[in-house]
Amino acid sequence: MKATIWHNPDCGTSRKTLAILQETPGVDLTVIEYRKTPFERAKLVQLFRDAGLTPREALRTRGSPAEELGLIDGADGDRILDEMVKEGILVERPFVETAKGVRLCRPQEKVHEIL
Predict the structure, then answer these.
(1) Catalytic residue list contains 105
(2) How far apart are CA 14 and CA 29, in angstroms?
């Protein structure tokens, strides 16, 4: 099974999710460190849609400039997406995609739903 994780190595939940994927037999894993390889808008739209989330629900508010950018109160989904493309740290993490779907793996055990 192919799996892709949008990973931040500084995030404990992301590291734990990555470990689950690496330890699961039969997983052909692609790791995208999104701070090095920024998100494309179309990919974010697809990930959020497939995970059943809105841009606001996928917005990382802790440890990000979301409040300073005015994204917490009143910003629409398009504005949030625009800022996420500019600043990947605004995307909550980690997202994992397999043939079975997409999950925001918080907590990391959610990854089992798509393996």
Answers:
(1) no
(2) 14
| Phi and psi angles of residue 61, each rounded to the nearest 5 degrees, phi first | -100, -30
Angle CA(3)–CA(5)–CA(90) in degrees, nearest 5?
150
Measured from the Cβ of residue 106, the count of other Cβ atoms closer than 10 Å reads 15
Q: How large a percentage of the chain has pLDDT more than 70?
A: 100
- pLDDT tens sequence across 91-108: 999 999 999 999 999 999
Which of these, 109, 102, 100, lies nearest to 43 by C-alpha position?
102
Give the integer Cα–Cα distance in Å for 35 and 109. Answer: 23
Given the residues 1, 11, 89, 115, the one annotated as active site:
11
Give the residue ranges of DSSP H helices in 36-96: 41-51, 77-86
In 3D space, the residue among 85, 82, 106, 81 whose CA is nearest the CA of residue 11 turns out to be: 106
What count of residues does the chain have? Answer: 115
H or E element, residue 103 = strand 101-104
